[in-house]
Design goal:
RNA Polymerase Alpha Subunit, Chain A, domain 2, 6-stranded mixed barrel, Ribosomal Protein L25, Chain P, 23% helix, 4-stranded mixed beta sheet
């Protein structure tokens, strides 16, 4: 639980960034039963908190010292060129009401099958949806891949270490991670052969499409015949 973290914010009177100083990010606060509030806040302070809570843990948002709100980060819009946040949506939560959220999976450890037998780690998902009270939301869920000791081992959703108060909203038999066998030299050679065959076919099509057009005079002569 990370509600002791607090982000100070200022209330915006207008949409857009015309009324904001440099070094800040615009945002909006909304939630069930409350009026939307347009905000702006310090970019550096936001980045510090975001590194700790991500988009799942609860912290406090303080609009101009009026009333601290328990919130989660619902969405971060980013600049397509540099990836920096340009707008943030905050969702106000009720601490006594269950909610659903997507929690990131963090893969830790090392599988002996990968290290010793050149297996390939396959991650089937990078987040899971959970349901619980806001104060019980984990910031992340660790997946220990050292549990995979041979090619027949799998890590299922039911194996994920979550508190009893947290309910995972997908089938517990869903595979989270496994290790695939490395391709043999014969398989690699076969793939290379298939690729070459495909390229040859494509070249044939291209050659047919790029055949030189007949001179106009010849076309006219053929029509007159």
């Amino acid at each position: 639980m990370t509600t002791e973290l607090t982000l100070d914010a200022k209330i915006r009177e207008k949409k857009g960034q015309g009324d904001m100083p440099l070094g800040v990010i615009p945002g909006i606060l909304y939630g069930r039963g409350i009026k939307n509030v347009m905000l702006w806040f310090n970019r550096r302070e936001f980045n510090k908190i975001y590194q700790q809570v991500g988009e799942s843990a609860v912290f406090k948002l303080d609009p101009e010292g009026k009333e601290k709100r328990n919130v989660i980060i619902k969405e971060v819009q980013r600049d397509i060129l540099n990836g920096k946040p340009v707008h943030v949506d905050f969702y106000q939560v009720r601490m006594d009401e269950e909610m659903e959220a997507k929690i990131p999976l963090v893969f830790v450890g090392e599988s002996a099958v990968v290290k010793e037998l050149s297996g390939v780690l396959v991650k089937n998902m990078d987040e899971v949806e959970v349901k619980c009270l806001p104060g019980d939301l984990p910031p992340q869920i660790q997946v220990d891949i050292s549990r995979i000791k041979n090619f027949d081992d799998y890590i299922f959703v039911k194996d994920l270490p979550v508190p009893q108060k947290v309910e995972i909203m997908i089938d517990p038999e869903t595979v989270v991670a496994m290790v695939a066998k490395p391709r043999s030299e014969e398989e690699l050679a076969e793939l290379e052969t298939e690729v070459k065959a495909d390229v040859t076919q494509i070249e044939g099509v291209v050659k047919e499409e790029t055949t030189e057009e007949k001179p106009v005079e010849e076309k006219v002569a053929e029509k007159s015949e």
